[in-house]
Design brief:
This protein folds into three domains: 1-179 and 231-268, no CATH class; 276-549, no CATH class; 555-631, no CATH class. The protein has 28 helices and two strands. It has helices spanning 2-6, 10-29, 33-52, 54-58, 85-108, 115-134, 138-156, 163-194, 199-202, 206-209, 212-229, 238-241, 247-255, 260-268, 270-274, 277-298, 304-325, 328-355, 373-387, 393-408, 411-438, 455-470, 481-486, 502-527, 531-541, 543-549, 554-600, 608-631, and strands at 64-72, 77-83. Helix 2 (10-29) runs antiparallel to helix 6 and helix 14 (260-268) packs parallel to helix 17.
Length: 632
């Protein structure tokens, strides 16, 4: 077993080798072999991680540090792996769900002229996220952090010939750079305080080195970076636009990589947040506001993928609530279950888009249940799971977060209430989506012939559906398996837990389930009716529906406050300052030289007698100057 743990670096190396190998030889392998090679390599990484995680499942295993090679030893920043229960859980999620998404992509990307390039980027994305979660220090973590940002740009703008896709890739890249500035400043403060960036040198000594003020500053700066990666207020605007990428990319970003990075960093930095309760409350507040804000926007979206995008933003808000209040196990539990049902929902939406000739507007779908029964039933499971219907996965993980917030008392009651309202909205808009797509009369255009997706796409759907059904059972009030699994990673950290006792559990779980049932029933009753009733329902909400449909016009607001002034500043710099000052200085020097040259040009007449005369005059002048100098 020790040999396997010492070889856990293969988890990164295998998909990285796939990215490099397919870059040079993928075109020669062609379709579908390039996709199968990429899938096999990420699958092999999952197998290595699963075997290496066995000691944590058995209990009692502590963290193992594996040095790969020296990088910047003076900074405590070597290329080293920390293999503990937290990194093991994240690795299993990334490689497990990632393998299913790779397999699904073989069918989804069929016929694409850049088929092999897609799998190069997909393997690189997985390797980058694995670098982040397996890092043994903040410097290596930041390396993976930036690489996932690069990969998101490459994949979101994969169909770069579409102007909207190219713009979405740039938007994702730029917004994340804003968050990264905060994260980098936080790392600078950490290094200034500890003189190292290694986890052991920072996290193990946080209580002895950091004051409350410094810990609060670091916690808030890390939050800025986490809000960028995990799409929280105010840096969430990139994620809905990222739906321009191929649907498997959306699934990978939302379920297993990228957006989970922010939650992971805060959980990994738990010793710092333990010293900074104010920073923790800010994290939880941001999460609560984001959860209900994004859920309200999702209600009125008509693009099948944008509904899921805002849903992800909202669900990440729950995770931020959990890490903010110190319920780290609950946060990671919901991160895991969310990977199952959100991966399922995105792949299911991709199956619909694939069958409907790239149609994503739910108003032009409908009645697909008979044509696509596997997709319909698996997406129904995902819908009920994210809605929090017992006993599916989302019920257990979401309720643990809400119950933990309630158990805090005081401010926790407000967090619980906001989370409960967001849960009701979630159940409503997810049911609305499923009903609009699969029930009622068909609303698609003539010439479209919907059909069930190929087996390479439906098999991942079935696997994720099973995980969405039973995945929540790993951590219930009856059996705390995941809590015991993660215990070594959070040893010495005081965590918030749900209130004890059956009465509290039944009351809180009952209220949460009631909210979910009301949401599901409302969504079904409203959207099961003819389309005319949809319009009446939306008209009753008036301007509020318009605000939800336009996502509160936040993009327009950012455009007016930030983008437009930035464009004007660059225009002034390019066409005024650069032209008149920079270019003016250069052309002015040239003009001066030209004038001087013109003034002395007559001296260059080309006649020898003129040069001889000038030489004689110069010689006489020099001799005269010397004679006068001697005399006087």
């Amino acid at each position: 077993m020790n040999a396997i743990i010492d070889s856990v670096w293969l988890v990164i190396a295998l998909p990285l080798a796939g990215a490099v190998g397919l870059h040079f030889g993928g075109r020669r392998l062609g379709e579908p072999m390039a996709g199968y090679v990429a899938t096999a390599l990420i699958g092999a990484a999952f197998a290595v991680a699963a075997i290496a995680a066995v000691p944590f499942i058995q209990g009692g295993e502590q963290a193992t540090h594996i040095m790969l090679w020296e990088w910047m030893p003076s900074l405590g920043a070597n290329l080293e792996i920390q293999w503990d229960s937290l990194s093991a859980l994240m690795t299993l999620i990334v490689t497990g769900v990632g393998t299913l998404i790779h397999l699904y992509s073989v069918g989804y990307m069929h016929g694409d002229e850049r088929f092999h390039r897609f799998f190069v980027d997909l393997n690189l994305f997985a390797a980058s996220m694995l670098t982040l979660v397996l890092a043994g220090n903040f410097a290596m973590l930041f390396l993976g952090w930036e690489l996932v940002g690069l990969c998101s740009y490459l994949l979101v703008s994969f169909w770069y010939t579409r102007p909207s896709a190219a713009a979405a890739g740039k938007k994702a890249f730029i917004v994340n750079r804003i968050g990264d500035v905060g994260f980098m400043v936080g790392l600078m403060v950490v290094f200034a305080s500890f003189g190292t960036l290694s986890y052991t040198g920072v996290l193990d000594r946080a209580g002895d080195v950091l004051s409350t003020g410094t810990a609060t500053a670091v916690g808030l700066l890390f939050l800025v970076g986490a809000a960028g990666k995990s799409a929280q207020i105010p840096l969430y605007v990139w994620l809905p636009d990222a739906m321009e990428g191929p649907t498997p990319v959306s699934a990978l970003i939302h379920a297993a990589t990228m957006v989970t990075a922010g939650v992971y960093v805060i959980a990994r930095s738990a010793p710092i947040y333990t010293l900074a309760p104010t920073a923790g409350m800010v994290v939880a507040t941001v999460g609560a506001l984001t959860a209900i804000w994004a859920a309200s926007i999702a209600i009125a979206q008509n693009d099948i993928k944008k509904v899921l995008a805002y849903s992800t933003i909202s669900q990440l808000g729950y995770m931020f609530i959990a890490v903010g209040i110190g319920a780290y196990t609950a946060a990671m539990f919901h991160l895991m279950t969310h990977a199952f049902f959100k991966g399922l929902l995105f792949l299911g939406s991709g199956s619909v888009i694939h069958a409907m000739d790239d149609e994503q507007d739910m108003r032009k779908l409908g009645g697909l249940f008979r044509a696509m029964p596997v997709t319909a039933l698996t997406m129904l499971i995902g819908t009920l799971a994210i809605s929090g219907i017992v006993p599916l996965a989302g019920f257990w993980s979401k309720d643990e977060i809400l119950a933990s917030a309630f158990g805090m008392g005081g401010y926790g009651y407000a967090l619980w209430l906001v989370g409960l309202i967001a849960a009701l909205l979630t159940a409503f808009y997810m049911t609305r989506q499923w009903v609009m797509v699969f029930l009622g009369e068909s609303r698609w255009e003539d010439g479209v012939h919907p059909h069930e997706s190929p087996r390479s796409m439906t098999v991942p759907l079935l696997v994720l559906a099973v995980l969405s059904l039973v995945g929540g059972l790993v951590n219930t009030p009856f059996r705390f398996t995941l809590e015991h699994f993660l215990a070594p990673a959070f040893e010495g950290i005081s965590q918030i837990h749900p209130p004890e006792g059956w009465t509290s559990f039944l009351i809180l779980a009952g209220l949460s389930l009631l909210a979910a049932v009301i949401g599901v029933a409302s969504g079904y009753l409203v959207y099961r009716r003819p389309t005319e009733s949809w319009a009446r329902f939306q008209d009753q909400l008036g301007g509020l529906w318009t605000q939800w449909e336009n996502a509160y016009n936040i993009d327009d607001l950012y455009g007016a406050l930030l983008v437009a002034p930035g464009k004007r500043a660059t225009e002034v710099a390019a066409f005024t300052f650069d032209t008149r000052v920079i270019d003016g200085a250069a052309t002015g020097v040239a003009a001066l030289v030209r004038r001087i040259g013109g003034a002395i040009q007559p001296l260059q007449s080309g006649f020898v007698r003129n040069y001889a005369a000038l030489f004689l005059i110069g010689t006489v002048a020099v001799v005269a100057w010397l004679v006068i100098g001697v005399w006087f």
